[in-house]
Design goal:
Shape of chain A: flat
Low-confidence stretches of chain B: none
Number of helices of chain A: 3
Low-confidence stretches of chain A: none
Strand order of the largest sheet of chain B: 1-3-2-4-6-5-10-11-9-7-8
Largest sheet of chain A: 2 strands, antiparallel
CATH architecture of one domain in chain B: Alpha-Beta Complex
Shape of chain B: globular
Mean pLDDT of chain B: 96
Helix content of chain B: 25-40%
Number of helices of chain B: 16
Structural class of chain B: alpha/beta
Distance between the termini of chain B: 19 Å
Oligomer: heterodimer
Radius of gyration of chain A: 23 Å
Radius of gyration of chain B: 21 Å
Number of strands of chain B: 11
Largest interface: A-B, 48 and 68 residues
């Protein structure tokens, strides 16, 4: 069943991407075409087949819990679109609750 | 003698070692070549002539002081622009990373610098390595040196075009579904995707983390081995990098012998839109291997036909997660249209990502969302298991598999407007990423003046065997021709 523009709007919300109306329609069309192409996966019998998430045998890799050099604060902030007082700056998140 | 920029890395390394040429002369010749062809080729997003000359002079000084230097010392290398370079802007071909100057080097870049390589620039790519033609770059397309009207392939199209056009003897790319091998095939150069885990990915801007791998481009198999040697091996900064010992790849190429080697020809890879010329040339290469003493037999990998569909669920799913970090807060582009924190993120991503990247994020988010996970993502991963199993079985009987790298030669710019048609260009390379295997592409002939590539696939961590077999073919076929550019 093809996805509606409304459902695509929901996916865009989950993806945190603002898409203008006309782009929502083209995204819907694209998603539907692709979903048709991947439909062939339903033809294979995969009952009891373990999923592969990673091509190498799974290993739990640990490192020693030791201090090591990290970026200086100025370096970490150097690429930020906006930085203030040694921090990344973003628009206000919490409403001013002056009581 | 050829101009210096035409030398292979191995030839140049010998001349440098014997002080017949200086690193500065070699670098100047390479930079002049870039200046001459770049207006037509557009293989680079950033060139670093000052850095290159500075690195070359350092090498010349060290050599003059009597130091014994690694083979890469003084050799120009170009880097795909999704590899972080300290102090040199890195865009991944995307507007959303405009202005980003990494504070540190990718591990592969660090290793190249330690070995004295001369970084000449950052090459063009499809945005975030998503694409098969380099037309999805947010900045400009790159031309194919064999025919400027055609694409160089992708996503590492800039690296492939730069090496083919002698703008650098060596380049690095990344390969998630064929992004090294397919452009290598389109541009008539050697390109290798190493085994998953063979090369550290620390500092590679991630696309799909269970598939991505960094690998070399070169004009000869010997040079490909040289560059792989420089970057292979475990790295504590990448927990997926393998601790398996790194063999001597140069030695593997030095004895290019395939006697008794068992080579399988998976018939499924000759269906799916493979053109008659590609079919004929790759089968001729198989006959050549037989003549050289290999045992060549047909085999079957039926699940490989489902690899493309599974890839277009798995790769977008992983990319939707990896690209969540681009939120307009820590680096890169931020919208001017700020309305609250969530709005900032949504606007920045809506304006900053190109159409192909948005589509893949949307597919990925959808495939991972509640209610669809089992039908799409889990099923694709189960199909992935079937693909892996078939390869494993094939490698009980065969040492290597031989296929076309791509079904057809490079297409004309703008020709593939149907995105799924375009994705078919990767149909022979994607299964190899799904199984994490090493694969190499090298030129096996020409169709209407455009290079045709063949792909050799090996068992995990058997890059040396791939290089040996590739070198054997190259020795028998003679030196590769150069594009007319």
């Amino acid at each position: 069943m093809p996805l509606t523009t409304e459902e695509v709007r929901r996916v865009a919300l989950l993806a945190r991407m603002e898409l203008p109306e006309e782009e929502l329609a083209s995204q819907a069309q694209h998603l539907n075409t692709l979903l048709q192409h991947v439909e062939i996966l339903q033809k294979l019998n995969v009952e009891g087949v373990e999923p592969t998430s990673h091509p190498l045998p799974p290993v739990n890799t640990l490192r020693n819990d030791e201090k090591r050099p990290s970026l200086a604060r100025e370096e970490a902030l150097a690429n930020a679109p906006e930085a203030r007082d040694g921090c990344f700056a973003v628009p206000r998140i919490v409403e001013d609750n002056a009581s | 003698m050829n101009s210096l920029y035409q030398l292979t890395a191995s030839q140049a390394a010998n001349l440098l070692k014997n002080r017949k040429i200086s690193a500065r002369e070699l670098t100047e010749s390479t930079l002049a070549r870039m200046d001459a062809v770049e207006p037509a080729l557009k293989a680079f997003l950033t060139t670093t002539p000052e850095l290159a000359l500075q690195l070359a002079d350092q090498i010349d000084r060290r050599r003059a002081a009597g130091e014994t230097l690694p083979p890469l010392a003084g050799i120009p290398v170009a880097l795909k622009d999704n590899l972080c370079t300290r102090g040199v802007r890195t865009t991944a071909g995307s507007r959303i990373l405009e202005g980003f100057v990494p504070p540190s080097n990718a591990t592969v870049v660090e290793r190249l610098l330690q070995q004295g390589a001369v970084i000449t620039g950052k090459t063009n790519l499809d945005e975030f390595a998503m694409g098969s033609s380099t037309e999805n770059s947010a900045f400009h397309p790159t031309a194919n040196p064999w025919d400027l009207q055609r694409v160089p392939g992708g996503s590492s199209g800039g690296s492939a075009a730069a090496v083919a056009a002698c703008c650098a003897p060596l380049a690095l790319g990344s390969d998630t579904g064929g992004s090294i091998r397919q452009p290598a095939s389109y541009c008539g150069v050697v390109g290798m995707k190493p085994t998953y885990g063979r090369v550290s990915r620390s500092g590679l801007i991630a696309y799909a983390s269970s598939l991505d791998q960094i690998g070399p481009f070169a004009r000869t198999v010997e040079d490909c081995a040289l560059l792989l040697q420089a970057i292979a091996g475990h790295d504590p900064l990448d927990s997926t990098s393998s601790e398996a010992p790194v063999p001597d790849y140069a030695a593997a190429c030095a004895h290019p012998d395939v006697k008794g080697m068992r080579i399988g020809i998976p018939e499924e890879y000759f269906a799916q839109g493979v053109t008659p010329d590609v079919d004929r040339l790759v089968r001729a290469a198989a006959s050549e291997y037989e003549r050289l003493g290999a045992v060549v037999e047909p085999c079957r990998l039926p699940s490989s036909e489902y690899a493309l569909a599974a890839y277009y669920v798995i790769a977008p799913a992983e990319c939707s997660s990896n690209l969540a970090r681009f939120d307009g807060v820590k680096y890169g582009f931020r919208t001017a249209n700020v309305a609250g924190h969530i709005g900032l993120t949504e606007q920045t991503r809506g304006e900053g990502f190109g159409p192909e990247v948005k589509q893949r994020i949307m597919i990925g988010v959808y495939a991972l969302s509640a209610g669809y996970y089992d039908a799409y993502y889990r099923r694709a991963q189960q199909v992935r298991t079937l693909i892996c199993r078939e390869f494993e079985e094939a490698f009980h009987k065969f040492d290597l598999l031989l296929t076309p790298t791509a079904p057809a030669v490079a297409f004309t710019m703008g020709e593939n407007s149907d995105p799924f048609q375009m994705k078919l260009a990767d149909v022979c390379t994607i299964p190899v990423n799904m199984a994490g295997l090493p694969g190499i592409s090298l030129c096996c002939g020409f169709s209407n003046g455009m290079p045709v590539g063949m792909q050799l696939i090996g068992r995990p961590f058997e890059e040396a065997l791939l290089l040996r077999a590739a070198a054997a073919y190259e020795t028998a076929a003679g030196p590769a021709s150069m594009p007319p550019l």
